[in-house]
From TrEMBL:
It comes from Liquorilactobacillus hordei DSM 19519. This is N-acetyltransferase domain-containing protein. InterPro entries: Acyl_CoA_acyltransferase.
Amino acid sequence: MEKAINYWNEEYKLNGFVRFSILNKKNNEAIGTFEIFKRVSKVDKFNNFLILRLDLRSDFEKSQIVLELLKIIIEPLVKIFACSKIASKVIPENTERRKAFQNYGFIQSYSPLIGDNDQKYFNYFVLPTN
């Protein structure tokens, strides 16, 4: 366990892969997590993007709640990681999340994110840079 904690501490110091818990303010109960890392790629358009992964308990997967979370986390993440390009996967079936991301200003990317194994991953939304 100590090795795991040290790993996360190092990742945090390096602005690498960082994971945060999301707590319900009403009862201090964990309702999800979000993870972020700055991606380096030579094979797709997602080079130097912050990749945001948002995992929420299904009863909190409502557009207004997701939008509220985005309003809380995006600006600090841009500042901490010194990167304004953000992408997050939003599957077509998740209409609540899609609505929230679009209301925040994210737009759907039709370019695939290409993994280390050359697999193409679709359904990413990106936040246009200023």
